[in-house]
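The methods section describes the discrete structure representation at length, but only in general terms. Since the whole study asks how a given chain folds, the encoding of that fold should be made plain. An entry of this sort, consisting of the sequence and the corresponding backbone structure tokens, reads as follows:

. . .
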Amino acid sequence: MSMQFPQWVVDRVIARQGVLHPYPEFDAATTAFVVVDFQNYYTQAGYQGQCAAAAATFPAVNRLAGALRDAGGQVIWIQTCADGADEFWSHHHAHMLTPERSQRRLHELSKSHQGYAFPGELDVQPTDTLVVKRCYSALAQGSSSLHEVLQAQGIRTVLIGGTATNVCCESTARDAMMMDYATVMVHDALSSYTEDEHLNALHNWILFFGDVLGVEEVIGRLQSVEPERKLLLATAE
């Protein structure tokens, strides 16, 4: 499903880069779908960080993950861990959260809590890669090993899904773009706390940073890895 942008956004994007959508195809072998923070803490009722719109995007995320796997690409699931965050991210916990919210985040996002885990509705496969991050962007210095994982897998295109669109997803996507990855926000695999936040983030993203496509648009652009090349890639791993 194509996202409809205001005409002023379309006009400015085309004036800058000549076309609205710059990537006619994606080589699956060098493409990763990075799903950010689809943990119970951010997607399920009862948790402090719940984004109520997130669960409705699970089918779209599962569909794109399955299609990319079948085509020979990589699926990477990002999990936030708050263990020790009151020390390594002390400003955020001391000044950007009330004491009560800080303590609840530290508790519900610890590795020992069910809030850290993935919901059962997500199709997380043993062949997928799991990456743990410490702050909003998985690509901020010291946050996670995501950049090293992408480099080791030969990734050049990063597709972003998860929640929240305008927080950890956008933060990770911006850093990916500035680290020279072709980066796409997959709009129907993303969600935020309000529709305005979701849309505003995507409008700003396509204006300055990268493309915005829907799941079906991405799947339609995927160039599958040939069987012989899949075998070579598997042997190399």
The chain has eleven helices and eight strands. Strands lie at 26-27, 31-36, 74-80, 129-133, 157-163, 182-191, 211-213, 222-223. The radius of gyration is 18 Å.
